[in-house]
Specification:
This protein is of the alpha/beta class. It contains 19 helices and 18 strands.
Amino acid sequence: MSLSLLLAGCGDPGDSSSSSNTLKISANAISGGKNAAQADWIQKWVIPQFVKAQKAKGVDVKVTFQPSGVEDEQYKTKLALDLQSGSGPDVFDIDGIWVGEFAEAGYIKPLDSVVKTAGDWDGWKQIPEAVQQLASFDGKRYGIPGGTDGRVIYYNKELFKKAGLPENWQPTSWDEIVAAGEKLKSQDGVTPIQLNAGTAMGEATTMQGVLPLLAGTGEPVWADGKWTGASAGVKEVLGLYQRIYSEKLGDPLLQKEAQGRDKSFQEFAEGKIGMLLEGDYFWRSVINPKDGVAPMADRDKTVGYAKIPATAPGRGVNGQDFVSYSGGGVQTINPAGKNKDLAFELMAFMNSAEAIKAQLAGEARITARTDVNNEVLAGDPMLGFISKEILPLTSYRPPLAAYTQVSTALQEATAAVLDGKDPQAAANDYQKKLEGAVGGAGNIKS
């Protein structure tokens, strides 16, 4: 159900800026609670530094922060209620997956239509065009993308060496991935490939599996106002799932366990999985030797990473040889705000190199800005790899309300293949579910 239908007649007028030089920032962050570091940065660095910078230009401003520390959907609904009533914060954060939904409801508008000088911001040249997709809908920018990520193939160099595979490995096709899996298969106790599948893995199946693979066939899951149904690409993706799991290159039981993803992390850390498709979160927070949930003391020596190839060179979306998928947050401004130009100045300030580095506080984390990444990721080759090699070619999920149901249908299609269903039949079943989720066959491209 769309936001406009969900919230019709439920608006709360709330508070709005009463002065043109008064601005309010909102984010789902609160000191001492959810996203505390972000809340502290806004209150202790952003606000005083922005006020100081404006004062130096002869402008007196007052900036307040509206914290929140609730579930994302609760934050989303409250924010939408405020925006629907024509009030709400001047600058606010949303998940990138909400952009299209908010845009279609009229709660946000293209930046260029709200602030005439928005396109002149010097920060745009530091954000790759692919990353700008995160804050875009129907080819128009609605905000500034924040932190992001990227998906790659992780592999165990020691297992590769034993199998006679190169330690510096970069497949250029799906066939090369399968061929490497066949060689790894000869080692006792080793699962060659972990490709997330089924509904127990949830969104990880879609983001770490189906979507990047689909991009590798040259098909986005949504484009030109239509969703991709039982297309040749979808059948090709499901065919790869069948190939991997029917040929025992992957462990189908792992995909069905409630904690299967966590177990796959542990097995990779223990040298029991040869290849695993995951995001940079896996490197930073899972196998991190210092504080990972499945720490690998020898991570930097043992773990390799490679770009996800298209089915064959040049067959990926936009004619790419390699593909990926990313997620992240977006910051935007209220089109009904009292001083939209000043609000954009504040947002641009918050997304400047100086401000982002202050927010990172020495932590190595991928941002939307190339200049910041070049500096803060210099000591981490893997995260630098994501920034330089993955972000320029990545894709993003369609920011539409129906996506959640589409994602579930894709997960169910992979689960059906795991259970022995033919990819063609699984694709046809997916198409039927898709028709129910997106308003009929007229909204589907097969």
